[in-house]
Structure formats: structure tokens, C-alpha cells
């Protein structure tokens, strides 16, 4: 799991790191401890970013047990913001050639 500790009270995780967590788990053996989740429970916040909807995380992780462990720790007391619509980056892009679409 790609972890970016920004402070003791906030940790940001990117789903892109799920594959790295899966590979690390395979090397380490059958136990999985989410990075700092147990120690942080009730004491800090975690922000998770993903371009995939949560219902695709099991498939993306490549290991349903790992995805269950991650989701189990994240969804308790969670606030989910699910964004939709066109990418703000694409909206802000201005094509070099007016005939091209971003």
C-alpha cells in the first residue's frame, strides 16, 4: 500500500499502491497488517484516493482476502465522496489545435 504520512493525524493512501501491498504480502507470508491502521484507530484520519469504484477494489487487488482486510479497516466510520463527471484536468486543458478535442 502506498502510504504518504502527512502528519500524525492524517495519512493519505493511493489505491495504486494496492499491487505493491499485494506483492509485499506474498513475500512476507499470510499475515497482513494495514500500514498503521491498527495503531491509528480512533486517533487519526485516513484519506484514500482511487480512480476505481470501491466495488472494483477486490479485483484490482488481485487478492480478495487482502481487499477485505483493507476495506474492513477503512469503511468503519467512513465518509465516502464519490465524484463523477468529466475530469477537471481535461476540462481545464486547452487544445493546441482548435480542431482537436481534449
From TrEMBL:
Example of a GO MF term: ATP binding
Region (Disordered): 18-44
InterPro entries: IstB_ATP-bd, P-loop_NTPase
Protein name (database record): IstB-like ATP binding protein
Domain IstB-like ATP-binding residues, every copy: 38-92
Gene3D superfamilies xrefs: P-loop containing nucleotide triphosphate hydrolases
Top-level lineage group: Bacteria
Amino acid at each position: 500500500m502506498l502510504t504518504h504520512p502527512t502528519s500524525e493525524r492524517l495519512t493519505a493512501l493511493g489505491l495504486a499502491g494496492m499491487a505493491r501491498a499485494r506483492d509485499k504480502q506474498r513475500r512476507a507470508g499470510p499475515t497482513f497488517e494495514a500500514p498503521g491502521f491498527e495503531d491509528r484507530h480512533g486517533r487519526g484520519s485516513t484519506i484514500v484516493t482511487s480512480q476505481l469504484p470501491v466495488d472494483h477494489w477486490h479485483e484490482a487487488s488481485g487478492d480478495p482476502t487482502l481487499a477485505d482486510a483493507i476495506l474492513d479497516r477503512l469503511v468503519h466510520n467512513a465518509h465516502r465522496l464519490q465524484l463523477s463527471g468529466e475530469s477537471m484536468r481535461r476540462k481545464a486543458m486547452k487544445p493546441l489545435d482548435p480542431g482537436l478535442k481534449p
